[in-house]
Known about the structure:
Low-confidence stretches: 190-232
Bound molecules: adenosine-5'-triphosphate
Amino acid sequence: MPKPKNAFHMEPPPILPDIEEQLREYIVCTEKLPIHEYERNQEFWPRKRDITSLFEFTDSPLCSTLRINRDPSTGKILDFIEVPIKGAGANARNSMSLSRAPGPPTETVRGSNSNFPFWPGSFPDPLADLSLKEEDLTSELLTVAPGLDRGLYFKSDGVTVTDEPEIIDSSFNTQNPDAIVNIIDLVNQEKTMLDIWQTPTNALKSSTEDSYNTFTTTPEEEDVIPKEAPVLKITQPSHIVNRDTLWAVMLDCSKPVTDFNDRIPEMAHKYKFELDTFQKQAILQLEKHNHVFVAAHTSAGKTVVAEYAIALSLKHMTRTIYTSPIKALSNQKYRDFRHTFKDKSYDRFKDVGLITGDFQINQTAGCLIMTTEILRSMLFNGSDVTRDLEFVIFDEVHYINDKERGHVWEQVLILLPAHVTVVLLSATVPNTIEFADWLGRMYQKKVYVVRTLERPVPLQHYLYTGTGGSTKNNRFLVLNETNMWVQDGYYKASESIPPPAHAAIQKKYMPQQEKTLWSALVDHLKRNDLLPVVAFTFSRVKCDMNAKNLSQTQRSLTGGGIHLL
Length: 565
Ligand SMILES: Nc1ncnc2c1ncn2[C@@H]1O[C@H](COP(=O)(O)OP(=O)(O)OP(=O)(O)O)[C@@H](O)[C@H]1O
């Protein structure tokens, strides 16, 4: 019977489940969670069997190829020979070989930091090691198959297999030289056994003496045993006299090379002037792909050698990398080389590129100019550019002596692959031979040193004591072009300074005095047509200050004004 509906009838209030109780149940009784009702949540698709899928496989790299053997006179095919493919399956992530597969085009120039570098030329040849191992293969053969306790037992005929190893009585075998007892050996052994019982101090003494005898060398031996290659101080006087060593050859630049044109009838690059002897000697070595170290004074013509290396590699359709220590020099060389090579029959204009931190121009060019740090990063990252690299030119290589950055030159020289020829350019340094010897020993290839002390631009030293006005032309020669001291010039310079100022010369100049001095000097040089000039200041702050002062006072300077280096 339905319940009567009246105004006073009220349903009992809904009793909500206790939230605390609900949460506890949720946390404690995990089996009630819907996730466990997998029958409702999970769907299962049975796998269909596909036998034909067994026939599918990813291609493994080809390990061998067929080489056709032809008759050289008729061209008729005589035979097919299966030859192994070098570096099959090798790539930049698993191999240091030059025959590994090239990386993607985006990584051609810079490489990638997940790449292996190419095998450095200064390391022992891995292929030579491999051939040694192959020779030794017979002694390293496995005699027990992996997973088995023992190998096969053979009878004495070496062919018939048995269940038990055959015991050969070799206790007295005159055929076996090991079985012959040497009495002298036994006596010696006994003597050493007896030595054990000597007093510990004696034993200790003899052991120290032994180790001393083992590790020390006699003076004669010292000449024979190669010492470990030191990190060189390239500008420090050498203990090696300037004569040939095992790995460095000093070329004679005192006599003219009369047969130069016969030896190189078709030069890769022609010059408007007759080459100097040191340039000819260096070029002859470049043609033979020998490492060359050119040490010559500023403006002696070192760049000529670098240009020839670039031209030679462009002729061979290979590459050259020109490294310089500073970005400003790289930029300047880029401009110079573009100009040098632009008129050639082949399109060399496009064959010069620049890679620095600021610019990347024509990165796939035949001649790339970059800072040494960029080349180091390319070598570490296994850049594919190094594959067809013929020459690497190191300008101002004496930077290897630099405390902060010298290690970069060392690393690059060590990392270069063996097929690369290095051309080192430097101002004259006292130990060229020592440096070349270090390099040659590392590469196990001779380095040819070309050294000239001639200065095409004679160096003269003057003292300038003027401050403008009547003293504006006070410039006195104190060291002439033959490196002779000019006493008279020095006296005149001393006399030209008034006594109070003369005393003040020992002290520091006031900024205003310094400004007047620089201004008077530059003015004097300008009037005597001796500009441009490079002014050295040993403090950065002073350098900025002088540059600022000069740009204010010498507004009329033509041809580019003042540049800070
Ligand atoms: N054999 C030569 N005869 C005449 N002029 C030459 C000869 N060799 C080089 N030059 C010229 O001398 C100038 C300086 O040469 P280069 O720039 O090659 O010198 P460098 O030694 O490289 O100088 P730096 O030390 O500044 O690098 C250039 O103008 C070059 O054309």
